[in-house]
């Protein structure tokens, strides 16, 4: 493990997911302790996307936007909101020059699949319909996220392709949760890795899917048999992450299906470790996410 990251492992608070409500509070305390970047070069506005129910979003608009990204927070479909994601959504906007629409989708177990996906799809449609208001071209809209949010981004790309929804120009998938079956080597073997391990992943999928197998690829994108026609993608995996092998496999399958893919497996890292901003490898990861998105939206 990267020594700068390893030094922080003992400081992580326990998150067992035995009590999702308590774990949300613990996660929020940890996440909001991270300082956000300077947002003076952008406008930040809370909006509500109409729907059943309405979906809260926070829009980060740099003064010279290159495009937009619908951005989805992590937290295993159980934790996270606009405030916990603020430091990262703002950094994505700053590093990429994109309008970032951060989504507060409904959480499990109170709202299992497909609630979160429906919320994200509503925001994608709203973003396309309001592209002119946001100051971006409707063909320069990407989707992305971290962990559970990365899985939702991949699922939304599949749904938009199948339903003839808004055109997504790019997928930014950072350590996404893609496969509820958890049969890969990393999913079976990583029982004591920091922050995310086999048991915690199992609990997250159990809450999200209400204790049942994924009913469709929109719940677990790795179950999709046809990955052709998807937007170009960037996929990032962490070496000591249960999601690692399904991330690499999904990227390879998209490549075989004719999708343009950039894949980066970050050695020495673990799930979510890019949040440790003092580590050089974390800064490189965040810079790369912003740079990849900037190039994709300018292409």
Automatic annotation (TrEMBL):
<feature type="domain" description="Alpha/beta hydrolase fold-3">
    <location>
        <begin position="69"/>
        <end position="273"/>
    </location>
</feature>
<dbReference type="InterPro" id="IPR013094">
    <property type="entry name" value="AB_hydrolase_3"/>
</dbReference>
<dbReference type="GO" id="GO:0016787">
    <property type="term" value="F:hydrolase activity"/>
</dbReference>
<protein>
    <submittedName>
        <fullName>Esterase</fullName>
    </submittedName>
</protein>
<dbReference type="InterPro" id="IPR029058">
    <property type="entry name" value="AB_hydrolase_fold"/>
</dbReference>
<keyword id="KW-0378">Hydrolase</keyword>
<dbReference type="InterPro" id="IPR050300">
    <property type="entry name" value="GDXG_lipolytic_enzyme"/>
</dbReference>
<dbReference type="Pfam" id="PF07859">
    <property type="entry name" value="Abhydrolase_3"/>
</dbReference>
């Amino acid at each position: 493990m990267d020594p700068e990251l390893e030094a922080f492992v003992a400081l992580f608070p326990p998150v067992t997911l035995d009590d999702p409500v308590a774990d949300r509070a613990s996660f929020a305390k940890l996440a909001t302790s991270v300082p956000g970047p300077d947002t003076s070069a952008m406008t930040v506005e809370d909006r509500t996307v109409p729907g059943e129910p309405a979906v809260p979003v926070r829009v980060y608009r740099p003064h010279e936007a290159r495009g937009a990204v619908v951005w989805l927070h992590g937290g295993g479909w159980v934790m996270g909101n606009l405030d916990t994601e603020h430091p990262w959504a703002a950094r994505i906007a700053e590093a990429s020059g994109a309008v970032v629409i951060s989504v507060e989708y409904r959480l499990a177990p109170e709202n299992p699949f497909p609630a979160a996906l429906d919320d994200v799809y509503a925001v994608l449609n709203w973003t396309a319909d309001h592209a002119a208001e946001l100051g971006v071209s409707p063909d320069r809209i990407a989707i992305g996220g971290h962990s559970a949010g990365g899985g939702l981004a991949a699922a939304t790309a599949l749904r938009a392709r199948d339903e003839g929804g808004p055109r997504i120009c790019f997928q930014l998938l950072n350590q996404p949760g893609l496969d509820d079956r958890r049969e890969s080597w990393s999913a079976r073997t990583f029982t004591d890795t920091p922050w995310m391990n086999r048991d915690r992943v199992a609990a997250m999928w159990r809450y999200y899917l209400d204790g049942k197998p994924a009913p469709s690829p929109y719940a677990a994108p790795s179950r999709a048999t046809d990955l052709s026609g998807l937007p170009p993608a960037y996929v990032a995996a962490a070496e000591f992450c249960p999601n690692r092998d399904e991330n690499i496999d999904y990227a390879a399958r998209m490549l075989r299906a004719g999708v343009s893919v950039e894949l980066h497996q970050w050695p020495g890292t673990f799930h979510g470790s890019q949040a440790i901003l003092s580590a050089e490898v974390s800064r490189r990861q965040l810079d790369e996410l912003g740079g990849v998105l900037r190039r994709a939206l300018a292409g």
